[in-house]
TrEMBL record:
Record domain SET: where: 31-310
Pfam families, per the entry: SET
Superkingdom field: Eukaryota
Protein name, as recorded: SET
Span of the signal peptide: none
Species this protein is from: Aspergillus sclerotialis
InterPro entries xref list: H3K4_H4K5_MeTrfase, SET_dom, SET_dom_sf
Length: 358
């Protein structure tokens, strides 16, 4: 029996306006989209009633977001660091860099945003200045991005949970507590040591000891194990942000891909969605770093609502999809499409493998 948890639907409401900062689109969840728990898959979204094609199912705001670009000095897709804004900060419109010149990836779209984000950025600034270069030189850009998003998760926790003085409060106040946008939402994300290989967990343990210990540079007050657990959760739940939709099961030839990644983020509610290679939800970021779910077809009452965790146009056959999901997401896909495309001799082999929910 699966347990059903009803999430109170919210109506679009006017969020508190912070002077000079553009109004942020509020959180939204469709009244027919409910969270439930499946004995095998864990948390999931289901339709409690018919959801018509094209309906907006969810708008979730990031708990932490980082830009992912090749050349921050010239790239037009850097996002404003202020969590109450997170709009793109194009080069030609004039950008506001960090007064301490920590890293060029940190910019704001206006002086007002820079000022409003002082406390939160203050938490990460010294860390960025000290560790960004050594991490990028010794490890990789991916590892740096992962560690930075962990630091930003801790920074949001620090400024919103530990203090009342943050522009971020204006967003969290406008959303109902049932949706768990707070640190509680991050704590309930799936993913643990057991999700990942021993080798991977060993490398992350080294990272935590070297770069993420509770210290004057990063005063988060959490133990090594908790931070390691946070990495295991983040890696299982973070989203890449791309300019075009993810999840279109297109028959166009050549298919249209989702474009080049410009950011990565953690969304406490959007992370509940499981994967399907023939999803009934497409997802795409809005212009403020929010994640928007839209029904790509009519969804029947009781049906699970799924997204695609990767660009379906890049992995057209079952072998490449399963290999990608196994490597990057640590589970074997048993969706309708994979099951129907499965060669008979593979069935025994795949079902013998443990199914890990992400
Ligand atoms: Zn801004
Ligand atoms: Zn800085
Ligand atoms: Zn599949």
């Amino acid at each position: 029996m699966s347990q059903v948890v009803y999430i109170t639907p919210i109506k679009e409401s006017e969020p508190t306006r912070v002077d000079g900062i553009p109004q942020t689109q509020p959180y939204w969840i469709h009244p027919h989209l409910i969270q439930s728990t499946d004995p095998l898959k864990g948390r999931q979204f289901r339709a409690s009633n018919l959801i018509p094609k094209g309906a907006c199912l969810l708008v979730d705001r990031p708990y932490a977001i980082i830009p992912v670009v090749d050349d921050p000095e010239t790239n037009e897709n850097l996002v404003c660091s202020n969590p109450a804004c997170n709009r793109r900060a194009p080069h030609h419109k004039g950008r506001y860099p960090c007064p301490n010149a920590c890293i060029p990836d940190v910019v704001w779209c206006s002086d007002t945003c820079r000022h409003a984000d002082q406390t939160r950025h203050g938490f990460e600034c010294t860390w960025l200045k000290k560790y960004s270069e050594p991490i990028r030189a010794k490890w990789s850009e991916y590892d740096f991005g992962m560690l930075w998003i962990i630091v930003r998760l801790l920074a949001t926790r620090h400024t919103t949970e530990m203090s009342d003085q943050s522009a971020f409060d204006s967003i969290t106040e406008s959303s109902p507590k049932q949706l768990k946008h707070s640190w509680e939402g991050i704590e309930s994300l799936c993913g643990s040591h057991d999700t990942w290989s021993h080798e991977q967990v060993r490398q992350w343990t080294t990272f935590v000891k070297k770069y993420l210990q509770d210290s004057p540079v990063l005063p988060h007050g959490l133990g090594t194990d908790r931070v390691l657990h946070l990495i295991c959760q983040e890696e299982a739940n973070s989203f890449g942000l791309y300019p075009r939709e993810t999840g279109i099961f297109s028959l166009l030839n050549p298919p249209v891909d989702r474009g080049k990644q410009f950011a990565a983020a953690v969304y406490p509610t959007a992370a509940i969605a499981n994967h399907s290679c023939i999803p009934n939800i497409i997802h795409k970021p809005d212009d403020q770093g929010g994640m928007v779910f839209t029904a790509s077809r009519d969804i029947q009452p009781g049906e699970e609502c799924c997204i695609a965790y990767f660009d379906l146009t890049q992995y057209p056959d079952i072998t490449s999809r399963r290999e990608h999901l196994r490597k990057s997401f640590r589970f074997v896909c048993q969706c309708e499409r994979c099951t129907s495309e499965e060669p008979q001799e593979e069935i025994i082999e795949w079902t013998a493998m443990p199914l890990v929910d992400i």
